[in-house]
Amino acid sequence: MSPAQQSAYSRLYDSFSYPFSETPLQREKDSENRDLIVEIGFGMGDATYKIAMENPDKDYLGIEVYKPGIGKVLDRIEENGITNLKVIEHDAVEVLKYMIRDDSLAGVHIFFPDPWPKKKHHKRRIIQPDFVALLKNKVKKNGYIYAVTDWENYAEHMLSVFENEKDLLNKYSGFAEPQQWRPFTKFERKGKEKSHEIFELVYIKN
Hints:
By secondary structure, the chain is α/β, with parallel strands linked by helices. It has a single domain (3-9, 33-205), classed as Rossmann fold (3-Layer(aba) Sandwich). The chain contains seven helices and seven strands, in the order H-E-H-E-H-E-H-E-H-E-H-E-H-E. It has helices spanning 3-12, 46-54, 67-80, 92-99, 129-138, 152-163, 186-193; strands at 36-40, 59-63, 85-88, 105-111, 139-149, 168-170, 199-205. Strands 3-2-1-4-5-7-6 form a seven-stranded mixed sheet, sandwiched between helices. Helix 3 (67-80) links the parallel strand 2 and strand 3. The longest helix is centred in the middle third of the chain and has 14 residues, at 67-80.
């Protein structure tokens, strides 16, 4: 971690995080009736804190295991006075399984998950039928799942997996049009510089 990230992590983690637990998440009393949106694997969190800043009426929870990214997000939370974003440093599958109640999430964001480009590693990709079924159970009726990748092969795989989950409705025909409210990230700009196409998927729970 950079010195700034390390400082933010040391000073702010306890204030802006939830510890992992095998019991359902207990949110603050003033947040219980607010929409909760989870971001899985936020990386350096460039989009994460900006979305939270632009939507102060909603609560956001970022799940990540990459300490420099967590440190950076905590630094941005302090710098911008953000009060509606917290993090959990733990495996996303276990967090969803144990801490998130069924039918409780207003939305899920999965921005540029690790594509594991080698064929022998495809089984490591997070978007798999069991995982999408888990996500679907956690999202409430009319809630959404929004996934983005710049790997065409992974995008086609994602589309196939989501289309086979009968309780999810594709908001578009095939891939979605760019969602203007999602901030660009440095990672995404680098991909565009390499002429990578961006593939977006938006599904609504029936």
